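wait is this the right file?? whatever heres the structure
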């Protein structure tokens, strides 16, 4: 979501820069007594003068602009997962670790747990979500083992291992002969 937010912000900023530069050129052309460069002012003024606020096209355009504005504001207000996680370093200054890298490392550690075929880890602001595919074994026992292994892997890397852990255990489908 962060990428979409930054991309939309960049597009809006670029559109505002282009519109501002175009407006400056048009005003400069009018002051110089030249014809409009890009925007046909006279035709637009004539067309917009006959439009009433109660017309359907005016209401649709206004509603679309309001919705676009609300969506942009909502995207700015959404909380996003930080790209980095604070980990205890060797010295007095804590280290910053990229979240995807830490998730991959913890998932690799979880694959070392007996009977775990694959694992996926998502670190949240508080806690983590784990998904493990198992070959065999009791799901409840494996749930506890996977949770403990994930906490231990985070603790070994100096990251916060407290908080709730949601573990989703799935059985690997049997291979057909």
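ok assuming it is, sequence goes like this
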């Amino acid at each position: 979501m962060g990428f979409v937010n930054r991309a939309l912000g960049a597009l809006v900023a670029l559109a505002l820069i282009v519109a501002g530069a175009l407006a400056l050129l048009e005003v400069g052309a009018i002051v110089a007594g030249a014809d409009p460069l890009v925007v046909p002012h006279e035709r637009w003024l004539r067309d917009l003068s006959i439009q009433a606020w109660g017309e359907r096209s005016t209401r649709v355009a206004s509603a679309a602009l309001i919705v676009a504005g609300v969506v942009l504001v909502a995207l700015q207000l959404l909380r996003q997962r930080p790209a980095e996680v604070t980990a205890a370093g060797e010295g007095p200054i804590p280290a910053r670790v990229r979240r995807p890298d830490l998730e991959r490392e913890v998932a690799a550690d979880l694959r070392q747990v007996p009977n775990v075929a694959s694992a996926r880890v998502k670190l949240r602001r508080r806690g983590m979500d784990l998904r493990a595919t198992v070959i065999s074994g009791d799901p409840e026992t494996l749930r506890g083992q996977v949770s403990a292994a994930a906490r231990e892997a985070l603790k070994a890397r100096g990251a916060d291992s407290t908080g709730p852990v949601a573990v989703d255990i799935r059985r690997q489908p049997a291979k057909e002969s």
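The longest helix spans residues 2-32. so i think its the right one actually
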